[in-house]
Every structure is written in C-alpha cells, then in structure tokens.
Amino acid sequence: MYKDNLNYRLKHTDLIExxxxxxxxxxxxxxxxxxxxxxxxxxxxxxxPLKDIVGKTPKEMEKAGIIVKQSTKVKSKAPITMIQxxxxxxxxxxxxxxxxxxxxSIICFAANYHHLQQLNYLHKLHDHSSxxxxxxxxxxxxxxxxxxxxxxxxxxxxxxxxAKVATTEAIVLxxxxxxxGKEVVAKNIHKxxxxxxxxxxxxNCGAIPEELIEAELFGYEKGAFTxxxxxxxxxxxxxxxxxxxxxxxxxxxxxLQVRLLRVIQTKKVTRVGGTKERPLNVRFIxxxxxxxxxxxxxxEFREDLFYRLNVIPIFIPPLxxxxxxxxxxxEYFLGTFNEKYQTKKVLTPETxxxxxEFDWPGNVRQLENIIERLxxxxxxxxxxxxxxxxxxxxxxxxxxxxxxxxKEAREQAEINMIQLAINKYGxxxxxxxxxxVDHSTIVRKMKKYHIKxxx
Length: 455
Prior knowledge:
The chain is an alpha/beta fold. The chain has four domains: 2-121, 2-Layer Sandwich (Beta-Lactamase); 153-319, Rossmann fold (3-Layer(aba) Sandwich); 322-392, Helicase, Ruva Protein, domain 3 (Orthogonal Bundle); 406-449. The chain contains 18 helices and 17 strands. α6 (153-166) crosses α7 and α13 packs across α15 (363-377). The two termini are 27 Å apart. One of its GO terms (molecular function) is DNA binding. Residues 148-376 form the Sigma-54 factor interaction domain. Keywords: Aromatic hydrocarbons catabolism, ATP-binding, DNA-binding, Nucleotide-binding, Transcription, Transcription regulation.
C-alpha cells in the first residue's frame, strides 16, 4: 500500500525499483514522522523486518522495544541527524531532510539509513588511504582481548562473562558451531586468569587416533606397551599449573571418559601401565560443536561427565546471528593478511554489504579464509564484488561479473528479472502482468532458461 501510494505520487516506477536494489538504506516518512516507505536495505542493515518499521513512528518503535535509545540533532542549514540504538545492539545513523512540492510545501521527509559501525570503518579506510605513502600495510585494530574481534551485543556479553569466569577455577564448557571461535574464548579465559604465565595446552580429542589418545593424555610407564622404551609424561602432566582445553570433547571414546572424570574429581593422574597416582593442578576447559545434552540422551556421552564439565556453560552464537562482528573481523583479517603478504587490499562498500548479508555457514573461519583468498588472488588493490565466488552474490544477481557478449547479458538480465518478479509477486501470472508480457511468454522463457518456479 505504501509503495503503491509512493508510485502514484512520484510517478517514477523505475526509480522505486532502483531504490529497492540499493545497498544504502532509504526511508520516507510523513510530516508527523510515520514511515510509509523503506527499501529492503533498511531491513538488511537493521536486522529488523520491514513490517516492524513501515507504518510506525520512531516513538512507537521505542514503545515496542525495537529502538532502545534515540538522539536527534537539528541544525538550521543541515539535515536532521539521528542515532538510534536498536534492541539487537546495532547503532543506526540517519540523515533526514524535507521534500517540497512545487508550491514550497513539505510533502514528506526523505532519509538515508546507515550502519554507524560501517560508516566508522569506511572512515578509517579513507584515513588510511590518505596516508599510504608513508605506510605499507593496514595494522590490525587494537583490541582488549587477545585475537577476539567483535563489537556485537552478543560478543560484548560473552567478553563480560569470560572476564568474570576467568578469575575463578571453575570448569567451563564452551559450545557452538564449528568455526565460531571456541578456541579464542578458551585462550582468553586462560590469559585473563591467574594461570596466564603457566602452560596452556589445547587437545583436539577428535584428531588423535583412538589407540593413541590414552597414552597422549595420561602418559605411560616404560614397558607399558610395545615401543614404550622409557617413561613419558602425558599432556595433562605437561600442563601442570596451567590450563587444558579439551577441544571436541564429544569425540572422546566412552571408556576414556570414565578416566577423565576420575582425573577431574581426584586431581590425580595415573600413567598407562603404572599404579602411582601423580598430583595434578590444572584448570579444565571443554569445547564441543555438538550439543552434548543430545549426545547424553543418545548414549554417546556420559551423563556424569557432562554434568561435571557443565559448571559454567558458554554458548557462542553463529556469525549469522551477530553480524555486527563482520565489519571489525573484516578489518582485522584484512590488516593481518595485508601484512603477511605485503599487499594493500581494500574491500569496497559493495563487497562489505554482500558479506553483511551472507549467512556464513562456516562462521568466522570461513570469513577468515575468504579474505585470505581474496588478498592472494585479487590482482587489483580494490576488492569489488566481481572477485567474489558466486555463492556470496546469490542475493544480488545484478552484480556484474565481467564483460560478456550482449546476447548473453540480455539473457542473464531476463533470467534475473523473471526470478525477481516471481519471487516478489508469488506467481507466474502476476509476474507476467508486472513485466508487461503474456503469461505464455514467461512460461516459454522459463523453459528456455531452465528456471524453476520454486527457485
């Protein structure tokens, strides 16, 4: 309804469709401040569905809890500027100015909608580019914790929890998908603890062969098995005084889980083939990409060990649920790999926007890997979307991938427009109406281009 009203008043359908495809957020509001139009970028930037924005005033959104805090500044010869803090922790920078009709009367307000963090990042890039004659690389940003980058609400909450937990001796169980940064959290617990100057040993329980893991963890006595020609301390003893991270603890064989539970409870370790109990003073941290409660229910993990490890549970959300971390992570990884490979690569705003919209199934590790790949293989210093693999551009098929024959470009444009119309209007018949062609034409072209209705 709002969009149709806008079309009627401005009479520029093509303009509206263009605004819909913009990376920058754009809003229109009445004189009373009620928003009657917002493009898709507003939802992408804010993380708030358009249905919760369009049709409401900022005050109503405050009452609904969508906006946590808002500050407004008005100058006589400048646009109105606003900074909104949203319930998901994002900060939005809005510039608004009135739109006048031919008689000089205000008909509405138009506003640009920006992610404040992204603006700050781009400002830093600009500052750096003006100083590149005297510097060769972008240094990694300063951070309070070791290699823990992120400014999202979820990450800041995690940092606060880790700072509290680190001062204790409590066992911590860290859970989250692969690549979210469980090792980074564990290292920071150690670095912030009283054990920071003692050993920190990370053990991947899924990487050590099952026939070797017992001897590796507990050590062995001379003659315990073939090839045991001397006594050898295990990783637990080597970490005495420090911290042990049992990574992927869900992969530990069941028979060793019993021995681990005894070590934790008695604070003593017995080597393979030995009888002497040796005192052990370590702080245990466990990590898993599995849901250990489900593993317990399925009989794949001991219930008593689970409860012994789950003293302080920490869950790390996937990167797709804390997208405010993407920009600082990009900045950090870009600086790191620019220094490593002696390059000066910069990500364009369009590339950053695509990264913001991507769901990152591989989480932080995937983001790190793609930035390293781009730094290595991109010949130009400016990394635009044309250099990205196709999976990062699926939401924006209009991104130009390079020069191609006009016939092929026309065909691709038809494919993109048909897909866009069907996705938007929900049926071939409605799509054909808005594309101003016969229903049979769309059917024929869909068959020609192998387009499925439920793509």
